[in-house]
Each structure stands twice: as C-alpha cells, then as structure tokens.
C-alpha cells in the first residue's frame, strides 16, 4: 500500500483524491434513458433490459411465496442459526430507535404536536452479481418492519442458476412481503414508477452498483431514497500497540468488495505502517477475491503517517469513512474526537465484519465523505412526521397583530385577511 508522510494540510488535499464522488456523464445519460423507457413501457421494458443485461428471459417477475419457504428449508442449519442470531441483534438494537410523537399543551388555548407515521410501502434493492448479500436484507427490512411499514418489497437481479437460497431465506426470515427478480437501474425505475407487476413505493433503500446509485439519485423527488451509496470504505486509526496482521486483514475485508472500494490506515507509527503494508501484500496472495482486492488496494488504498493522535483524528474526520476502526490503547476514550463516520468500531475485538453481520447496528452506511451530513440506515428512515396545531379563539386573537404584521411585511395581504376574517 502507498505510504504517505506529509503534513496534515497536504494530507487533506491528498485524501480528497481518494474520497471525492465523481459523476459519469455517460452513465447518467444511459440511466436516464432506462428510467424513461421503464416509465413508458413498464414490464415490457423490464423484460428487454433483463434479457440484455442479465441474459435472463423473465415471464413472471414475482418469486412465489412457497419458494421463499422452500429456500429457508434448504439452507444449512448453521446458516439459519446465524441469520436468526443476526435478526435478534438487529431487532434489539433498532427497537431503541423508535420515535414517539408529542403533544404540547403548556399554553392555554393552544395545542401543538407532531405525529409519527410509518411509510406505506418501501422498496429494498439487494445486489446480485459477484456475491449474494443476505445480511443486507436483514439490515434493511427489519428496521422497516420495526417502524411499522405496511409492505416491504424486494428486488434483486435474476441469476443464471436461480437466486441464491440464502437470499430468499433471509427475505423470509426478515418478513419481506414480496420478492421480484429484476436488477439494475430498471429495478429502481420499477420501484419508483410502478409497472404492471411491481407496485410503486414511497422510498427505495439498499446499496447497489454505480448504475443503481445513479438511478436512485435521478428518481429522488418522485420517491424518497436512503442515500446515494458508493463503494465500500474502511478507515483505521491505529498506533504501535495494534497488530499489523489484524489491521491488514481488516483492510482487505473491505477491499475485496469492489475494485473501487477504499481501504485507509492512519497511524503515528512509520514502523506499523510498513508492517501493515507488507502484511497486506502477503495476505492478498491467498485471498479468493485477490484480483478485486488487489486493484482496490493499488488504486484507492493508502496509509498515512501523522505526527500525533490529534492530527490522525483531524485527517480521519476529513475522510469521513463509512466504517471506522479505532485501534488505539484504550480506544473508547477517543470516541468523542470522532465527528464524521458512518459506524465506529472500538478496540481490537470490534473487527469491521462484526458490524457487517451480527452486532446489530446497521451496515447500510454513508460513503464517499457523506458521513459529514448523513446517518446510517435506521428505523427513522421508514417514518414520516406530521405537525398539527389547534388554537382557541382567544389564543388566535392574542397573536393576531403579530401574524398580520409578518404577513404584510412579506407582501401577502391574503394571509393577513385570512386570519382577520375570523374576527369580523
């Protein structure tokens, strides 16, 4: 891995090259055409795109419910146990995110409040292609169910040998209401606009490739989305007390996702940096997804050696990584120094894959520096809030002068007259 020894100012410039989001105009144009075609031709367009992109001839997009049940019976007892274990932890964590509305009656004659309402229908995109992701189904569907969403529908690309039983079993365990075999930008279009087979949703969640991310961005406004997720990222803050072999393994755990994934280590020890770089090279040799991980490390991975721990945190807050491991002595004491990160892993035994699969906090996280203003997927993503007010005649009359003053200052005479009408 590349090792940098630069000032904090210079390193902040360098990390921008690794974390900034880029726009591909060719993909933007291609996705826009796909969305328009699906909106117009609906199922017919979906079938044409699935044949073109996935080499799949689809007659019925919906997977029969009994196939989900059969998949649950087909997977190994060990996998079923692991999925159920993850489900329990995800539920126990996300139940604590539930929000209640409120009513304020402190002033006589005035009632103000807010009600929290679950979304009616949510679409979940689950990637296919180079890997199957049953964990993503649990992470996205279970918070929606906890929130009280009426219907969770899932789309995932068709596979030559059929959708993996682990994926269908996870959908069954998570309580997904319907599964459709369609992927890519065309699946996002179907969820946004609806087709003869697939109903339109209120919100689309879940990760995907650049075509899926671009499509989500373009349909935003027609529907809500969770985020425009980019390639996976891991940032590690470590000092000389950390184990270089463990750090290398954690870096590779994210590099193997995608050639565009980002693996970053920031330390105050040149010796550790050199050992980790060597360990990454060694561990790559036996990694099954070596080609993907090697490209990620070579093109987008780096190690930065800083002068002090405060500089390390200042730089990592600039990176704003999706996953952040703090492998420093007494790591928990540094949590307050983190301002920008999707999910934080404290100490040697909080390896990033723990969060991917089993701990309970969500693994659908902001990427590409968007942790500076975005949050992990949670129950709060599946509800909407409505305000309400009720005033008595006396309460409104007491505020009449201020309301009409503000209305006429803004040149909105109709606003002023609407309130005055109550007292004529």
Summarize the structure.
The chain has 16 helices and 14 strands. With 424 residues, it is α/β, with parallel strands linked by helices. The termini are far apart.
Commentary on this structure:
The structure is a single chain. The strands form three sheets. The chain has a six-stranded parallel beta sheet with strand order 1-11-10-9-12-13, sandwiched between helices. It is built from 16 helices and 14 strands. A hairpin with a 5-residue loop joins strand 2 and strand 3. 45% of the residues lie in helices and 16% in strands. With 424 residues, the chain is α/β, with parallel strands linked by helices. It has three domains: 150 residues, 3-Layer(aba) Sandwich (Rossmann fold), CATH 3.40.50; 201 residues, Nitrogenase molybdenum iron protein domain (Rossmann fold, 3-Layer(aba) Sandwich), CATH 3.40.50.1980; 32 residues, no CATH class.
């Amino acid at each position: 891995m590349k090792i940098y020894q630069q000032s904090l100012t210079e390193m902040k410039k360098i990390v921008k090259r690794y974390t900034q989001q880029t726009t591909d105009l060719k993909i933007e144009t291609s996705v826009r055409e796909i969305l328009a075609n699906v909106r117009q031709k609906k199922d017919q367009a979906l079938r044409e795109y699935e044949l073109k992109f996935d080499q799949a001839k689809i007659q019925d997009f919906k997977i029969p419910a009994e196939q989900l049940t059969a998949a649950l019976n087909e997977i190994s007892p060990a996998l079923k146990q692991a999925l159920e274990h993850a489900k329990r932890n995800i539920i126990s964590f996300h139940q604590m995110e539930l929000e209640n509305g409120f009513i304020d009656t402190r002033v006589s004659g005035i009632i103000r409040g807010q009600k929290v309402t679950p979304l009616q229908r949510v679409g979940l995109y689950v990637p296919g292609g180079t890997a199957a992701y049953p964990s993503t189904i649990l992470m996205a569907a279970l918070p929606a169910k906890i929130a009280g969403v009426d219907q969770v529908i899932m789309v995932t690309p068709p596979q030559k040998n059929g959708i993996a039983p682990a994926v269908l079993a996870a959908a069954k365990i998570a309580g997904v209401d319907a599964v459709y075999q369609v992927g890519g930008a065309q699946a996002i279009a179907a969820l946004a606009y609806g087709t003869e087979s697939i109903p339109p949703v209120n919100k689309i969640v879940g990760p995907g490739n650049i075509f899926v991310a671009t499509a989500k961005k373009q349909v935003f406004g027609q529907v809500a989305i969770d985020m425009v997720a980019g390639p996976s990222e891991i940032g590690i803050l470590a000092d000389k007390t950390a184990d270089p072999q463990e750090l290398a393994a954690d870096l590779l755990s994210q590099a193997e996702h995608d050639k565009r994934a980002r693996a970053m280590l920031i330390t105050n020890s040149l010796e550790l940096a050199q050992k980790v770089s060597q360990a990454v090279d060694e561990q790559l040799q036996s990694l099954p997804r070596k080609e993907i991980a090697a490209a990620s490390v070579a093109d987008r991975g780096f190690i930065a050696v800083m002068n002090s721990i405060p500089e390390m945190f200042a730089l990592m807050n600039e990176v704003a990584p999706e996953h952040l491991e703090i492998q420093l002595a007494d790591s928990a004491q540094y949590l307050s120094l983190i301002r920008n990160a999707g999910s934080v892993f404290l100490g040697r035994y909080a390896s990033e894959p723990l969060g991917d699969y089993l701990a309970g906090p969500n693994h659908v996280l902001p990427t590409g520096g968007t942790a500076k203003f975005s949050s992990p997927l949670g129950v709060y993503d599946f509800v909407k809030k409505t305000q309400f007010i009720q005033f008595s005649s006396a309460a409104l009359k007491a505020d009449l002068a201020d309301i009409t003053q503000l209305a006429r200052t803004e040149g909105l005479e109709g606003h002023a007259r609407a309130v005055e009408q109550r007292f004529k």
